């Protein structure tokens, strides 16, 4: 049976490409695949994040379970049998016999959680204040932006230390160790909201005079609805770039505070706490206790920072 010939007027069915295919064929993914630095940084970040999330499954030991520790394994060198027990540890052990590899995996969980939560808190606070300052204007804008200018005159780490000290001081003694992580998140977040607010305020000043905002006012939209549903989606691109770069800075800030002894408690050590502990044994020959957590922190922060730099270039149409 022969096929019936189609008339010229017969419409030809065209398959719509899937959203996944459209996303994979976008300029963003094309630019990403053409950047070896971005690809390597992304792979490293994904591996480290997954390793931190699944630390209880990957780590050969639970380093913070006192019942599983053996002091005879203390100061074991990397990949060498312990002289007393004969146990071999990939990255050695610390003074308490804790496996350094396992402590790094668990420490990354704290560092990543604090960094991500602090950036999220700073982003929400900065976007909210930036939208209000740019859209409302007047004395509201003046108060918000002058407060931001005053905060910029102080180093962020000093602001975080001040906020952490005040918040910890008003926290009951019996809850200080339990609340230390959350206090640390709030301290870093409050020290980092300014750059989000300044960028969003500048973008809002441009967007609020465009026709679509004026049309929204004419149909009776309220100011909060205009800011959230119309202006906010159009100012998110630079915010995402700042958030990526701020994540690396937040991780370093957390490590700095923990290294100074005002961050994560010893019961929940982060990479900064591990570095502080290892620093005390550096000159006695146990170099691995400091080296491996420090290299992990450097790799994590550098990878996130490089990924943020690429994201900034990829989302900037002037650099294409």
UniProtKB/TrEMBL annotation:
Location (main, coarse): membrane
Entry's transmembrane regions: 37-59, 110-136, 148-167, 179-200, 231-253, 287-311
Keywords: Cell membrane, Membrane, Transmembrane, Transmembrane helix, Transport
Pfam families in the record: BPD_transp_1, OppC_N
One record GO biological process: transmembrane transport
Keyword field contains Transmembrane: yes
Subcellular location: Cell membrane
Record GO cellular component, one term: plasma membrane
Domain ABC transmembrane type-1 as annotated: residue spans: 108-308
Membrane-topology annotation of the record: Multi-pass membrane protein
Record-linked PANTHER family: ABC TRANSPORTER PERMEASE PROTEIN (PTHR43386:SF26), OLIGOPEPTIDE TRANSPORT SYSTEM PERMEASE PROTEIN APPC (PTHR43386)
Family under the similarity heading: Belongs to the binding-protein-dependent transport system permease family.
Protein name according to UniProt: ABC transporter permease
Taxonomic classification: Bacteria, Pseudomonadati, Pseudomonadota, Alphaproteobacteria, Rhodobacterales
């Amino acid at each position: 049976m022969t096929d019936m010939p189609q008339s010229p007027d017969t419409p030809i069915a065209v398959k719509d490409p899937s959203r996944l295919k459209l996303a994979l064929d976008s300029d963003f993914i094309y630019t990403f695949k053409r950047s070896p630095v971005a690809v390597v940084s992304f792979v490293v970040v994904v591996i480290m994040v997954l390793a931190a999330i699944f630390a209880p499954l990957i780590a050969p030991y639970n380093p913070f379970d006192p019942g599983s520790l053996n002091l005879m394994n203390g100061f074991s060198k990397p990949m060498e049998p312990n002289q007393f027990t004969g146990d071999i540890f990939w990255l050695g052990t610390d003074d308490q016999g804790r496996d350094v590899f396992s402590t790094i995996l668990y420490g990354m969980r704290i560092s990543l959680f604090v960094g991500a939560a602090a950036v999220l808190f700073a982003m929400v606070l900065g976007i909210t204040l930036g939208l209000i300052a740019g859209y409302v204007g007047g004395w509201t804008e003046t108060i918000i932006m002058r407060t931001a200018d005053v905060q910029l005159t102080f180093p962020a780490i000093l602001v975080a230390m001040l906020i952490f000290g005040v918040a910890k001081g008003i926290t009951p003694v019996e809850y200080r160790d339990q609340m230390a992580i959350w206090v640390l998140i709030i301290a870093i977040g409050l020290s980092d909201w300014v750059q989000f607010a300044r960028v969003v305020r500048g973008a809002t000043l441009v967007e609020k005079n465009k026709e679509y905002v004026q049309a929204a006012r004419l149909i009776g939209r309220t100011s909060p609805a205009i800011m959230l549903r119309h202006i906010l989606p159009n100012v998110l691109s630079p915010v995402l770039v700042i958030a990526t770069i701020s994540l690396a800075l937040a991780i370093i800030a957390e490590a700095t505070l923990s290294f100074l002894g005002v961050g994560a408690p010893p019961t929940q050590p982060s990479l900064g706490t591990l570095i502080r502990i290892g620093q005390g044994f550096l000159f006695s020959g146990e170099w691995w206790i400091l080296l491996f957590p420090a290299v992990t922190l450097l790799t994590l922060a550098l990878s996130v920072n490089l990924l943020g730099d690429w994201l900034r270039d990829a989302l900037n149409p002037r650099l294409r």
